[in-house]
Design goal:
Length: 111
C-alpha cells in the first residue's frame, strides 16, 4: 500500500479526533498499515478533558417481566482477590433472581 491510499483511507477519521490520544491512535493505525516497523507516535499537547464517572454493576441482566432481572452476580476475580463486584458487598443482600426496579430510590427501570 502506498502513502497516498493510506492517508486517503484515514482522512475521514480526522473530523472525529477530539484529543491528542485520538490522533495518536489514527497515526499508529496508519503506520501499521504502511508496514512501518518500530515507529512510535507520542508527545503533543494533552488537554484536560471531562472523565465521566461510570462503572459496572458486576452482574448479568436479562429482560424479564418488563424489568431487568439479575441472572448472575460476579463475586471476585481469581487473578485479583481484592476486586469484588459492587452488588456482592456485605450488607447489600442482593441475590440472583432479583429485579432492578429503580436507581437511587427512584422507580424508573421498567423496559
Amino acid at each position: 500500500m502506498n502513502t497516498a491510499s493510506a492517508s486517503g483511507r484515514y482522512a475521514p477519521l480526522i473530523p472525529f479526533v477530539r484529543h491528542r490520544a485520538d490522533l495518536t491512535c489514527v497515526l499508529d493505525q496508519m503506520n501499521g498499515e504502511l508496514s512501518v516497523g518500530h515507529s512510535f507516535v507520542g508527545g503533543g499537547d494533552y488537554p484536560e478533558t471531562d472523565r465521566p464517572l461510570s462503572g459496572l454493576l458486576g452482574a448479568d441482566l436479562v429482560a424479564e417481566n418488563n424489568y431487568w432481572k439479575i441472572s448472575r452476580i460476579y463475586t471476585s476475580e481469581s487473578w485479583n482477590p481484592d476486586l469484588s463486584g459492587p452488588l456482592y458487598r456485605p450488607g447489600l443482600n442482593i441475590k440472583e433472581g432479583y429485579y432492578l426496579v429503580g436507581i437511587n430510590g427512584t422507580r424508573q427501570c421498567s423496559l
